[in-house]
């Protein structure tokens, strides 16, 4: 009897809907319809610059129209057309102290067809900034107009440091160099790393102002170098390269100092251009005091397209990555549109291009926003739920840093979903989807994954091993449409709370990312 009673009490406690719950309910058929369309072979894997992507963009805009939303792209349209440039290197010469250097490879440039550069060199350790942990590669050196040289490793952070911080550091080297006014960056890596980059094409957006995400700031040249090549650059600096190398391998603190001699770099790139569009819609808010603010729901519309070089099934349908995220966004938009009075703030829905090329649609949007960035209160990003099981927990990437954490917990409690801690810190998910670009612009931003409970761990590991970024991420997977609807409903409930609550989400006081991305502290107003 006791046991039975306990079980009954549990069911009651988890029972989602009480009388005053006025949220709309998500529909399994709605999300299923979107995924089955977007992940069909006819959509050809929604590759950027390919026909299938454009069809998917039109489909999304068409649904926005049917829901009665407002176009919120460029020039009163649904779309924000982005020009991408794919660059490959057609020649290079690198000299140091007048002598040709072997083992330094220039990366192709999307901004400069011909690079010509002569500048002094400055060694900056890891080239990373983590001031609160005593690592600031740029403290005490002036790198303006110079070429900075850094190891590809990362400094050791104290045990127990939030894993998002090392994920962030690993992806921040280029931005740090640009922010400090360097004109060139050389990253010293393993032979394998240098070989990989030597073969690489580089794709980046270029905007009407002549800017690109690939070479931010004044950066003109990115290079990679082997240890052998780097050793010569340290000659005459009075520092022992072998010692620095060993220290870098074990994550020890490294000094920053000027190197001897100047380097001259010449190179040329050949270009190929293509376009892909972000698709943007707005549901106007109903509260005159808050309607100028926006809650963003975003998801990437692109996937990897068709790989013509492969035989057999060569269509990368991206059913979970990320047709299911777009389906979630469209379903949330439908629920909002049915009860628009819930949105005191406006809600902006953005289907983003080129996430698979390195979060590029998001970085373009942040550089060319269609509403003031200051007006964006929070971002709920939707990327790659794995709805193959009846999940009852989620992981909220990014939430630990700002008050959206509380919103996620409250919205989850409404429908019996708990929040778990990140079970895959090694995947560095915080930096690997579009919400990160919005966070870098100072906006509290999150992404939910379905959790490891209820059999999720097995599903995730099989997905990563067998189908992630492969042709098998398609409609033959046993997608649990009820679970996907539940994921959609949770995200809708989170966005609905963010759009209704009077206070704006804020970074937690003293949070690493709040201090870094919102240095003026304009988003650290504490809840009244
Ligand atoms: Zn992906």
From TrEMBL:
UniProt-listed InterPro entries: M28_fam, PA_dom_sf, Peptidase_M28
GO terms of biological process kind: proteolysis
Molecular function terms, GO-annotated: aminopeptidase activity; metal ion binding; metalloexopeptidase activity
Pfam families: Peptidase_M28
Signal sequence interval, chain numbering: 1-19
Coiled-coil ranges from the UniProt annotation: none
Keywords, in A-Z order: Aminopeptidase, Hydrolase, Metal-binding, Protease, Signal, Zinc
Domain Peptidase M28 as annotated: residue spans: 278-491
Protein name according to UniProt: Peptidase M28 domain-containing protein
Source lineage: Bacteria, Pseudomonadati, Pseudomonadota, Alphaproteobacteria, Sphingomonadales
